[in-house]
Design goal:
- The mean pLDDT is about 90.
- By secondary structure, the protein is an alpha/beta fold.
- It has helices spanning about 20-25, 30-45, 105-120, 135-150, 155-160, 175-180, 195-200, 210-220, and strands spanning about 1-5, 10-15, 125, 165-170, 185-190, 205-210.
- Strand 4, helix 6 and strand 5 (about 185-190) form a beta-alpha-beta unit.
- It is elongated and about 95 Å long.
- The chain has two domains: about 1-45 and about 95-220, Ribosomal Protein L4, Chain: A (3-Layer(aba) Sandwich), CATH 3.40.1370.10; about 45-95, no CATH class.
Length: about 220
């Protein structure tokens, strides 16, 4: 399976071979949905937390004696029935939303989404990706030149500018990461860290052709 490659200026330069076991996998929406839910759950942070009576400050002594006052018996002002006391059945930081993801399932879902990107012409492979200085305007030009090249010319220009881009680098590049840091709807990742959630959240995938080998080594050989 082959795909066209482009220069940073958006000019077609040749072809690159795509492994069929990664980029030609039939879609299974149920599996992809399951992996997305698991990823979102694993990223979820537990913020809401209420204190129970053991965590509330104060209440070290009995409010009044047990008998003879005419009032109800109480052992502590930290009781949930007191104002300022603990909370019964409130949300706590002990909650765990983690979901275990089977490695084979996660890998299969990733291949499905990558195959979908290729089929929908939303994956752009470059001969190489390099900038001389970490300048935002240089990175914007590269993204616009490559993305606009494969898009339908009838697509509204404003709509094209609003479409998101995921850039997958074959290795860590500090200059490119810094250059893209302030660009809206653009995210930089390494090819070895590609995942289903990022691929679905961003419309276009741009990566140098060396990234194909990184994906193969990371997700096939390991």
């Amino acid at each position: 399976m082959k795909i066209s490659t482009y220069t940073q200026n958006g000019k077609e330069s040749g072809k690159a071979e795509l492994p069929s076991e990664i980029f030609d996998v039939k879609m299974n929406s149920d599996l992809v949905h399951q992996i997305v839910l698991a990823q979102m759950s694993n990223q979820r942070q537990v913020i809401a937390h209420t204190k129970d009576k053991s965590e509330v400050r104060g209440g070290g002594r009995k409010p009044w004696k047990q008998k003879g006052t005419g009032r109800a018996r109480h052992g502590s002002i930290r009781s949930p029935i007191w104002k300022g006391g603990g909370v019964t059945f409130g949300p706590t930081k002990d909650r765990n939303f983690k979901k275990k993801i089977n490695k084979k399932m996660r890998r299969k879902a990733l291949f499905m989404v990558l195959s979908s990107k290729v089929e929908d012409k939303e994956m752009i492979v470059l001969d190489g990706l390099k900038i001389e200085k970490p300048k935002t305007k240089e990175m914007i030009k590269i993204i616009q030149d490559t993305r606009d090249k494969i898009q339908d010319t009838k697509t509204n220009l404003k709509k094209r500018k609003e479409e998101s881009v995921l850039v997958a680098l074959s290795k860590k590049d500090v200059d490119i990461t810094r250059a893209a840091k302030n660009i809206q709807k653009v995210k930089i990742v390494q090819a070895k860290d590609l995942n289903v959630l990022d691929l679905l959240n961003y419309k276009y995938l741009i990566m140098p052709k060396e990234g194909i080998d990184v994906i193969k080594e990371t997700f096939i050989k390991n």
